[in-house]
Design brief:
Helix content is about 40%, strand content about 15%. The chain folds into 2 domains: about 5-235, no CATH class; about 245-420, Rossmann fold (3-Layer(aba) Sandwich). By secondary structure, it is an alpha/beta fold. Bound molecules: zinc ion (ZN).
Length: about 425
């Protein structure tokens, strides 16, 4: 069960067309995408008559209709290979399982993941036949498959739409949606002597890593970064540590630092006093610290993300017994719009919506009476900052943004936590 030599040649030609540089100008020159090489040469071709063109399973096998590969133009074969390879690089099968994609929603997932891939491929001047665009979905280009799917799966099933296909149809294969088709081989068909291999999870992980390194260089050289594929390289190469625990621990450390600054006092007796009855030991005074939350309400801050960041800080403060009147919220755009004392930071109503100047917010927070010990600033970071730290106050800068963005700098004197959607 392997491709005939002539079909193998056409497949090899399509891979070369994708990765090599054009020797001379022509109507459909090679695409110069060497970053795909690792993945393309890992694919295991399986001839079949069960699919109209070509599909993949999640073990990196590509099922190829032999009539199709015999007659399809090499660039069309190349474009399909790149399309399926991106399903495998993105691990769309596992992601579909995470979303509990099933036979009733598989068509939506296929459209969603294809629309995400289409945007990546278009930047490399590849356009496989019939791939839906973000426009078709009615959403901006560059989003993830999950984002498209969220919208699509809320819509009625597109029965009768021949582009979507139903599960009984091959679609892009289980390499797209994790749902095994009848023509697909079982995993792990690696018996000795068998000429059929598959790519296991560890090998797949290694291939993704190598392609991500090469791809990052490719798009850096090219100068444009398709959102979804750029996020993918970041996820593969620099998996981000969840920001929530970092923000919580920054708050706890700031409060601890405040307590460390507390003077020893003789007004409260040490709990060790009974051990040394004739000497009066100093006790530490541990007042509840005052916390000011400065919130950028300039409209460029994502409300959902802001809510999560506030929730994290609330949780940390509650755990430390810092609640109610010791928390002040300052809503700020170019100037402080409102100052409220709240039980729960998330309960606050935020005013504002113009430009951004967090320096005004921090200055106002620093001037509060009673004095704030800890100031937490929530902003997208596109703001001026004070030149110096407010003296004796710990400042945390929670910079809110999207995963693919490089977030703006913040001053060294503020503890920076990047919070991403
Ligand atoms: Zn697809």
């Amino acid at each position: 069960m392997s491709l005939s030599p002539s079909h193998g040649d056409r497949l090899a030609a399509a891979k070369l067309w994708l990765i090599s540089t054009a020797a001379q100008p022509g109507p459909d020159p090679p695409r110069d995408l060497p970053y795909l090489a690792r993945a393309l040469y890992a694919l295991v071709p399986v001839p079949t008559s069960e699919v109209p063109r070509i599909t993949c399973d999640e073990h990196w096998r590509v099922y190829i209709n032999t009539d199709w590969i015999e007659t399809a133009p090499i660039p069309a074969i190349g474009a399909e290979l790149a399309h399926l390879t991106w399903h495998l690089l993105h691990d769309h099968a596992a992601r579909a399982r995470d979303l509990r994609v099933d036979a009733t929603t598989a068509a939506h997932w296929r459209t969603a993941s294809d629309a995400a891939i289409e945007h990546t491929l278009r930047a490399d001047t590849l356009s496989p036949d019939g791939l839906p665009t973000a426009d078709d979905v009615g959403l901006p280009a560059g989003l993830s498959a999950e984002e498209y799917y969220a919208v699509l799966s809320g819509l009625p099933a597109a029965i009768g739409d021949n582009r979507h296909g139903r599960l009984t149809e091959p679609g892009c294969g289980s390499g797209c949606d994790g749902l095994t088709r009848s023509h697909e081989l079982p995993p792990g068909l690696d018996r000795p002597g068998a000429d059929l291999a598959h790519i296991g999870r560890d090998d797949a992980r290694q291939i993704r890593r190598l392609v991500a390194i090469a791809y990052r260089e490719h798009i850096t050289t090219r100068g444009t970064k398709p959102g979804d594929a750029w996020r993918w390289t970041q996820d593969i190469l620099e998996p981000t540590i969840a920001w929530q625990p970092l923000l919580g621990s920054a708050v706890r450390r700031a409060v601890a630092w405040t307590n460390g600054n507390t003077q020893y006092t003789y007004t409260r007796r040490s709990r060790r006093q009974s051990a040394v009855p004739n000497v009066l030991l100093p006790g530490t005074r541990r007042p509840v610290p005052n916390v000011a939350l400065v919130i950028d309400t300039s409209g460029s801050v994502d409300d959902h993300l802001l809510g999560r960041a506030l929730g994290e800080v609330d949780g940390a403060l509650r755990g430390l017994g810092v609640t109610g009147s010791s928390v002040t919220v300052l809503a700020c755009d170019t100037a402080v719009q409102s100052v409220t004392r709240v039980r729960n930071a998330r309960d606050t109503t935020l005013a504002g919506g113009g430009g951004t100047d967090m320096a005004a917010g921090i200055t106002a927070a620093a001037a509060l009476r009673p004095r704030a010990d800890v100031i937490v600033v929530f902003t997208d970071g596109h703001t001026p900052w004070p030149h110096q730290a407010p003296p004796g106050q710990a400042v945390i800068a929670a910079i809110l943004g999207r995963p693919e963005h490089t977030l703006p700098p913040s001053p060294d004197w503020a503890k920076r936590i990047e919070c991403r959607l």
